[in-house]
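User: Predict the structure for this protein chain, please.
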Amino acid sequence: MKLKRKIIAITLISLFLLSTIPLVSADDVDYELDNAKVNLIVQNNGLLHVTEAIKYHFDSSANGVYRDIQLKDNQTIENLRVGIDGAYGTYEIFNESNKFKIKVYLYSDPAKTHKIHSGSDITVYYDYDMTHAIKIYKDTAELHYKLWGEEWDVALYQLKGTVEFQDKTGIEYWLNPYNKVTNDSFKNNILNVESGYIPDGQYLEVRALIPLEQFDNPIYAQFINSNGKEEVRKIQEDYDNANNFAEFGFKALIALGFLSLIIPLRIYWKYGREPKISYNGIYEREPPTKDSPVLVNALQGGLSSTVGSIDNHGFQAAVMDLINRNYLKISREEISEDGLLADKDSAILNINYEKINELSPNEKLIINMLKEFEENGSISLKDMKSKLHNTVTAEKFVKDLDYWKRDFIDTYLPKDEFKKYFIDDGAIYLIIYGIVLAIFGGIMLYLSLGSIVESSFMGGLVGILFLILGIGTCFLPNTIGGRWTEYGAEFNAKWKNFKKYLKEYSLINEHPPESIAIWNEYLVYGTALGVADNVYKAMKTNVPTGAYYDNDLFLFYSIGGYHSLNSAITTGISTSSSNDSAGGVGGGSGGGGGGAF
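Assistant: Here is the predicted structure, written as structure tokens:
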């Protein structure tokens, strides 16, 4: 069961990390883009005049900024002028494949010897003409231009743009994606566009159909020997339909996801409700059954409340049971007659080789695990802990411990036997539901990252919620979805009442056991139930001091053996686990991006 949950964990965590990859970025310069103003003038010769004012706020020092302008076939940038407000600077131009790059070096002093410092607010102005940005069809002309491109490496907080035509008459325009636009208006011959926050990786473009009469001699335009008006309209119609469908899809997915939350309730109602039993005891003074302490630990779910799993208390109880039954002995060489140990962490165990052939195969696995730490016939728990700081040793110990746990379950609590106590069908269905919900949430998150529709933001948040809920559902204890049988419910109730008796100091003091042998039994079962310290506290009050020296189990606990063994196991698990290896629409001219260096 532990291996199954580890596989589930690795699968779900990997899904979550993969879904967040688009969110990860690394910038050498820490800066923000406060606002940008972009103004376009469509000239009657087919030339597009562009002016940009981009305001940067720097939270670190920087050498400068750069601006990339994407170019399509035959497009060129002419008459470039660069201005700077808030700093001094120079610039360089690079003509790369399908890209015009402007690199602006910024300085804080007129001599241009010191780069700009943190806290600087600087505006860079770009003024240029772009050829072949206007398309001339047989029946119309088209402007298709990105006011802001998707290649910027940080978000833009505000954009204001204008497009100036020769005349307003006959103009049709679209803004893509429209949900990024906070305001647009067409006054006289100027189209005004405003946008709020534009995340990095997203764009805002304008597309307009322009009557051919607005061009006298469009020598700087691109000529296309076909009709374009209906084609452009069809592209925009399809784009709007796709967005509407995506919008509906996100809302439907969100609704479907929330409706699916009924499923766990249905699973619980059908599979998780506990049966009624006639037992109504308050507490148990004696172990309710003769079952082994490890079996009790497994069926009580240890401290995890997962029925059918053995925790580390179960292993400790198994070792202490072997001590109680004289298969393991306590070395008395450094122990005084009053049961004191000079070095409290140096409890030493010896294997009773004369009797170990009597042990069951599962119990022999424990002996073999301990033998790995035997030196000169003795097992020092202090040395065992020290050796478990070694990665190879710790990994083998944890592997052997997991194997022992699986072997015990396979031997003493196979599926048919387990079903006598507990029905875990509902818990299995909850795990399946959790995996499906997490995958569903991951898909929603992934789709929202690349979507421009209005509900995508909410879809992303809901995706994260479902991802977390799905993963959490997979790790719920099986008592949530599963249920006890009548036999198992009575077994569980009785052992819980016995644990209550052992845990409450006043109860055990009022009704103490009558013999040392029963105290030993209490201590072993108390270990399996996670309340050994409570039992030992009562023992110290009720058992004569001299009995410590004669009783190996008492002695083991009194000299710190229980806690030393627990510390060694924890060290091995910690050492082992710490070394696990483990972009039709949107194709307009211009745009591009930029950044800082």
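The CA atoms of residues 176 and 329 lie 80 Å apart.
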